[in-house]
Input
Amino acid sequence: MLKSMTGYGKATCQLGPDKYLVEIRSVNGKSADITLKTQLIPRDREVEVRKYIADQLSRGNIDLFITVERTEGAATKQINRETLLAYYKQLEEAVEGTDLACCEPDVKLGSLLRLPDVLETRNTELTPDDWEKLYDTIRQAVAGLDDFRRREGESLHRDVLAQVGKIESYIPEVERYERERVSAIRERIEARARELALQMDGNRLEQEMIFWLEKLDVNEEKVRLRQHCRYFRETVENEPLPGRKLGFIAQEMGREINTLGSKANHAEIQKWVVRMKDELEKIKEQTLNIL
Output
């Protein structure tokens, strides 16, 4: 079953008074380009996290976010007692013997709390147990993203095979006009000969016809295009991560369709070739997003 490279997953956990939200998203990419948009993962664990994500998700431009939601009422800052007392001592010495010495204690305290480094952000360093819980939450988010990719892949599976089926169905439409094209070429050669007042014997006319029919023959292109379509289907159904290979097969399909168009020499055939190209472009866009 196909998987998309686009997806989103999230999971949460409670560590003490705080709620940790892990989010991970991915879009298509040629390799596993992983960005950890958080400073909450310990430095010595980053390689392990990156390897786990790459092993599970294979390819894509992947961003991991971790945010902390503070529980209401939980203190996010704490007073640095030594700094506060040092400021207080300096303040007492500075105002001693002045009218400011009679200031109310709460006024002094309010002023001191606004001074630099008196209030410190509460330490959010994770303990080993906290990290294991958070790492498990990361795994849950990655699993959610993988499940999202699988569901998107089911839709891609239906779409690309439907488009390949349309291309296959257009080949008989091209064949409908091949006999008509032979007659049109004969008429064009005869008309040109009459216009130039040339006398052409039957053998020479047949030689010219054979020359043009060999030059414009599209049987090989039709056979190869059918083979590529069949190979595309087999790859979709049988390979676990076929994205890159499907892109290469689509390129080969494009070569045959382009050659078919260059040899068409018939307005109706050209119309069907354009329809093939339209379906092929849709296939190419979708294979870029197939894992």
About this structure: The chain has three domains: 7-73+127-149, 77-121, 154-287. The radius of gyration is 36 Å.
